[in-house]
# Entry
Amino acid sequence: MAVYVNEETLTFHLTNRDVSYLFNVLPNGELAQLYYGKSLRHVDDFSQLFYTEVKDNSCTEADAALSMDVIRQEYPSFSRSDFRLPALQVTSPDGSRVSRFTYTSYEIIAGKQTLPGLPATYVETPDEAETLVITLKDEVLNATLCLTYTIYKDAPVITRHAAITNQGEATVVIDQLMSASVDFNQSEMDWLELAGSWARERHIKRTPLHAGVQNIQSTRGASSPQHNPFLALVQPETTEQSGTAYGFSLVYSGNFLAQMEVDHYDTTRVMIGINPFDFNWQLKQEETFTTPEAVLVYSDQGLNKLSQTYHDLYRTRLARGVWRDRLRPVLINNWEATYFNFNEDKLLQMAKVAKQLGVDLFVLDDGWFKGRNSDTTSLGDWFVDEDKLPNGLTSLSDKIHDLGLQFGLWIEPEMVSPESDLYQAHPDWVVGVTNRPNSPGRNQYVLDFSNDDVVSYIYELIKARLTEANVDYVKWDMNRFITEAGSVALDANDQASFRHRYILGVYKLYTLLTEDFPEVLFESCAAGGARFDPGMLYYAPQAWTSDDTDALERVKIQYGTSLVYPVSMMGAHVSAVPNHQTGRVTPLETRGIVSFSGMLGYELDPSQLTDEEKTIIHKQISTYKNIQAIVQFGKMTRLISPFSDPLHASWQFISESNTDVVVTFIQQQARPNPGFRQLKLAGLQPDRRYRLVGTDHVFYGDQLMYHGIELDRHIDRSDAGDARAYLLHFNLLEEA
Ligand code: GLA
# Structure
């Protein structure tokens, strides 16, 4: 791994075994991209990779015979000879929006820097990565721009962010500052995104690029279930197993923009960052604004390799804290079992049976605080409801702990109900604007987390509850989006910075609470998976994947989510049937097997289970614990996509030690008189033998990969039907 610099030509080459990223300084001082893709050998002179000429219909730069319109740029600025959309737009004190940042210097740093107030990937030792910082300056604006690139040593990962510092006396306004921008010299590509809505998050959509601008974004104040802050560009022939793929993921939980622009010369400009829509930032003298981090991953072996790279990075160098490397507890959550209708006896009754089934952690969901008997009241009043829990939280938690279970608590710290003591006391603490009514969502308002006083108040309150209840786990929810974006605590000029300041406030509270409670496992949640993004996963190593717990729906949701996020980050629960979201009835075994590809939990009332169901769940939990390390820390490969095969889906995990392979096969729908099916595994050692656990069937790795396993021979299909799931576990045989 290295960052090479040719001091004479000012060419920068970030490279490792897998990837190369190259750019240089143009005669006018701006940066041109030379290459991004499969690793190139390093040579002193890369000038062969650059060609440009001024076209007849072009405008040129004032001081150089260059047209930026035909140059692949590194970080395009605004309103000169390039007509494509820029990565950066600033308004100078005189109202002008033209900018031109030219190269001044570079610096190479071992390891990786942190980003002030923002989540980001990290290194544990400086030799894991190398960082290049390029400094540019706009003399007219009197501002510097730092572009930071980190290349990881052993992975095709390059992270980027940008920062502007105002060195002048007058305020400049940042209208747009993207985290990364890349110009590709081709447009014959497809783009992939994770799209959806509440209860059907992160479905994979693949679309050919076309001329003009196409983008995905969030305007909701959260990364959103509609579009995840991720996109990939792939060759038309790219599959799960082969072909080129470029991923762009943003470590951010607020409004984002991921945009592609195919221009008149079939160049594709891709950029990702904070959504410039409804955003600006007043940058005063000597202040610096830093963007969130973009994580760029390259794969020359299809989407699986792209995903595996993200999985490794996000599991080991984005997630933090003691729970990063610990096996997660199997939990039971009372939400779908009781909703708001519970008391201490009911909870303890559930917990007792759950303990007998093998559950580790009892989570008390919504409804435990003062007067909260429906979703119409009480958010913000984080004091125990003495009607439901007259002995208090500490007593409940003690009793749960006495049963041998850990205790978890649901909170929604960013919210307030209009019917609450907090709102009565501080109506000005709500997100909104003067003289206009607020639009409620789920009967609640959003607290103004851009205001430090609000964050501090909520921090003290939540800290007191977590301390007194001796909490082991927190489910941090966020159930509505932001409307009437604004803060009465901000100056008029700062109102358009509100959405970013809000997210910074959320990150601040997360920082305070995770630092105070380092042993607590945090799970983020946002009406299910509405904030399933790398920003949240930096603070909370797992997230509630979706409110939709229907096993078949979950196949698509979890498969799509796995395009970027490892299963160690996905909460996956077995719930009762008929399913509360779809009304569908699926076998308990299927619900279990689907949830095994995630951090297992139960979302049902165990005291209502039949003896047979209890036996199944008891066995389920012990099976899961047997394979949990393989799933949580192993390498996932997707085998059959439910988005292209309406009948089936499949994926596998190989353990870190390469000794175990766990395969999930789903039959979404039964078909009469089907043919016989072979399922081809991937990534095994071709010349080593594997035993199907529980049988004496032994296979060479090459047979399992190239011929495939004869499914009908090795799984019991006597109970065929819709929504059936099968788990196959292979052990590597020790050979003499
Ligand atoms: C959200 C969550 C659910 C549950 C409810 C409680 O919808 O996604 O899991 O916690 O809130 O109100």
In short: The first helix runs from residue 302 to 317. The pocket of alpha-D-galactopyranose is lined by residues 335, 365-366, 410, 477, 479, 525, 527-528, 544, 547 (CB under 6 Å). The mean pLDDT is 97. The chain has 13 helices and 38 strands.
